[in-house]
Model the fold of this input.
Amino acid sequence: MSCKNAMLKKIPIFILLLSFYVGASPLSDGALRLIQIGSEIGSKDVVLRGQSLLLKGAFDLNDFDAMYEASKQLRQGNELMGYAPQEREANQILIKLVRRSYDAALYEYALYLLDGGHGFIKNEFLALNLFEESFKVHGNAKSAMMAAIIRNESLVPGTKKLQRIDELILFAILNKVAGAQAYQATYIEKDYLSDLTPKNWRHWIESQSL
Done:
């Protein structure tokens, strides 16, 4: 069996093993560096070494970081290795990590729900709940900003509570989240002037600066 087929065969098992998380490992950083370097120099051997290390972190060490990064690798595929994107499998892993309140997955899944697409149905209510959980449980300042925006823009009816919005956006500003201070000045303090309606929230976030 080829290395490619062997790795693809492991994916359903990998998803199942998410039910048995026991700890974390720093292997994922090293694995991603190998994958990046291998891709840059066009070396399949180096990429495969990184992918194997990533799977080791996920399978043998049950590392949430490795699981999350594996989901991202599945989502984007790998042209050098001949792997097509596997969005459905990536989404399965992401959702299982969300159920375990893994913060990066909470934030990522919430963004997918806010925009819709990529195998997810748009759901602003669930997105708000996930951003709020990410903020409350993990102190994620980026999630605090997004929760403030959803509330302030009334994307979820009945959630525009000014005190809560102020608390969330202030936390984001104090933690230097890109776009937080500008949003406060433009859309909270001058709320009556305009609404924020980007075509894609993920792209809007990526375009922000301090």
